[in-house]
C-alpha cells in the first residue's frame, strides 16, 4: 500500500513539474534596436566656409540597442523594465561623453491595465516622448539643421533618478515625471518636474506640456502646445509652439554647432519662441515623404560680440524614405537653414547651410 501511495505521489509530483509553467507568471525579455547612418554633404561647415562630406548619425534615429521585459504578476498587474543604449555606428563608440552604457533609458516599474504605469530610473521626459513619438514631423531629428529648436532643452530630455507616471482614460493620455536632485539640505536643487496631457478626438490629436529643470538653483522652463491632424490614414499635418526660458546660461552654448566660435558670455535669461509645421505622407506602401519647417525667435541671447540681443533662425527639411523590407529602408534628405542676430554665434562660418544626405537603416 505504501508502495502504491509512493508511486501515486511521485506521479503527481511529475505532473506538477510538467505543468508548472502554466501555474507561474508569464515573463518575456526582448532584445531590440536599430542601426542607422548617413553620408552627408554640408556647406559652410567651418570658419573658412568649406564644404564637408562625412559619415554620421541618421537623420531621425540614432543607432541603439536595448533590452525590455515584462512579468505578469496577475490581476492585470505586471513588472516592466527597459535598458537602452545609444552608440555611433560609424565609429563603434558610445554616443556620449560620460561613457554611460544605457544613455537613453534605464528603468524598472509596475504597469497596471487599469491604473497606468509607474517607473523608476533614468528616463526620457514626457515632453521628449510626446514630441519624438507623435507630434514632431522629424521625430526630434538628429541633424542640427532640423533639431535646433530643441537644443536649449537638449540636456534635459532625459533625467536621472526619476519617477514617472503614464496613464490613459478614454482619449486622454497623461504623463508626469519628477527627478530627484539628490543635494543634501535642498530638495529642489538639481531637481526636475514635467507633465504632458494629450487628447485624441477622431482625426485630431493635441498636446500641452510643461517642464522645469533646476541647475544649481537656476531654472530652465519649457512650455509646448502641439497638434496633429490626420486627413487620411496615410496623410498627416503637424504643427506646434515651444516657449523656453533659460536662467542657467546653458542654452546659448547648447544652441551652437560644432566648430562655432567660443562665446564671450552667456545670457542669464534667454527666451526662445519656436514654431514648426510639417507633414508626413505614406505615398505608397514602401515610399514615405516628410516635409518640415522650423522657426525660432530668440531674445536676450548671447551674441558674438559679447552683448545680449535677439535673433531669428529658420530651416526647411525634405525627407524621402523607401522600405526595402519590413526592417530595412534607404532614405535621402535635403535641408536648408539660415540665421541672423544672436544666431550668428551658432554657425561655424556663414549664416546659412545646405545639407544633402543619403542613409540606410535596419531595425532588429
Give a summary of the structure in a few sentences.
The protein has one domain (about 25-364): Porin. The protein has four helices and 17 strands. It has helices spanning about 1-20, 20-25, 125-135, 250-255, and strands at about 25-40, 50-55, 65-75, 75-85, 105-110, 115-125, 160-170, 170-180, 190-200, 205-215, 220-230, 235-245, 270-280, 285-300, 310-325, 330-340, 350-364.
Description:
This protein is mainly β and 364 residues long. Helices cover 10% and strands 54% of the residues. The radius of gyration is 24 Å and the shape is globular.
Provide key terms for this protein:
16-stranded antiparallel β-barrel, Porin, 4 helices, 364 residues, mainly beta, 17 strands
Corresponding CATH superfamily: Porin
Describe the global form.
globular
CATH topology name, in short, is Porin
Structural class: mainly beta
CATH level 1 name: Mainly Beta
Number of helices: 4
Q: Which regions contain 5 or more consecutive residues with pLDDT less than 50?
A: 1-23
Binned, the helix content reads under 10%
Q: How far apart are the termini?
A: 59 Å
Largest sheet composition: 16 strands, antiparallel, barrel
Q: Which CATH architecture?
A: Beta Barrel
The helix/strand series, from N terminus to C terminus, equals HHEEEEEEHEEEEEEHEEEEE
C-alpha Rg, in Å? 24 Å
Signal peptide: 1-25
Membrane topology: Multi-pass membrane protein
Subunit structure: Homotrimer.
Keywords: Cell outer membrane, Ion transport, Membrane, Porin, Signal, Transmembrane, Transmembrane beta strand, Transport
Amino acid at each position: 500500500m505504501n508502495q502504491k501511495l509512493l508511486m501515486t505521489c511521485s506521479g503527481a509530483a511529475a505532473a506538477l513539474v510538467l505543468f508548472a509553467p502554466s501555474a507561474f507568471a508569464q515573463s518575456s525579455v526582448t532584445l531590440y534596436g536599430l542601426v542607422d547612418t548617413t553620408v552627408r554633404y554640408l556647406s559652410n561647415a567651418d570658419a573658412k566656409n568649406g564644404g564637408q562630406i562625412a559619415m554620421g548619425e541618421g537623420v531621425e534615429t540614432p543607432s541603439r540597442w536595448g533590452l525590455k521585459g515584462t512579468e505578469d504578476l496577475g490581476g492585470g498587474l505586471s513588472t516592466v523594465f527597459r535598458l537602452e543604449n545609444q552608440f555611433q555606428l560609424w565609429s563603434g563608440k558610445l554616443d556620449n561623453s560620460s561613457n554611460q552604457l544605457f544613455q537613453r533609458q534605464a528603468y524598472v516599474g509596475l504597469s497596471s491595465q487599469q491604473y497606468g504605469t509607474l517607473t523608476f530610473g533614468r528616463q526620457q521626459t514626457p515632453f521628449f516622448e510626446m514630441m519624438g513619438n507623435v507630434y514632431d514631423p522629424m521625430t526630434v531629428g538628429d541633424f542640427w539643421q532640423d533639431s535646433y529648436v530643441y537644443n536649449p532643452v537638449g540636456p534635459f530630455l532625459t533625467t536621472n533618478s526619476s519617477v514617472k507616471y503614464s496613464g490613459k482614460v478614454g482619449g486622454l493620455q497623461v504623463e508626469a515625471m519628477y527627478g530627484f536632485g539628490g543635494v543634501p539640505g535642498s530638495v529642489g536643487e538639481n531637481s526636475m518636474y514635467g507633465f504632458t496631457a494629450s487628447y485624441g478626438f477622431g482625426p485630431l490629436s493635441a498636446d500641452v506640456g510643461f517642464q522645469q529643470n533646476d541647475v544649481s538653483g537656476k531654472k530652465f522652463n519649457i512650455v509646448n502646445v502641439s497638434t496633429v491632424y490626420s486627413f487620411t490614414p496615410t496623410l498627416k499635418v503637424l504643427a506646434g509652439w515651444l516657449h523656453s526660458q533659460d536662467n542657467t546660461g546653458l542654452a546659448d552654448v547648447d544652441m551652437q554647432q560644432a566648430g562655432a566660435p567660443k562665446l564671450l558670455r552667456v545670457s542669464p535669461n534667454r527666451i526662445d519662441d519656436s514654431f514648426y509645421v510639417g507633414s508626413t505622407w505614406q505615398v505608397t506602401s514602401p515610399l514615405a515623404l516628410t516635409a518640415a519647417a522650423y522657426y525660432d525667435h530668440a531674445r536676450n541671447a548671447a551674441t558674438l560680440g559679447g552683448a545680449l540681443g535677439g535673433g531669428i533662425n529658420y530651416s526647411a527639411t525634405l525627407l524621402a524614405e523607401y522600405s526595402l523590407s519590413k526592417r530595412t529602408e534607404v532614405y535621402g534628405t535635403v535641408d536648408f537653414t539660415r540665421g541672423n542676430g544672436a544666431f550668428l554665434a551658432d554657425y561655424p562660418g556663414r549664416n546659412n547651410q545646405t545639407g544633402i544626405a543619403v542613409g540606410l537603416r535596419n531595425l532588429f
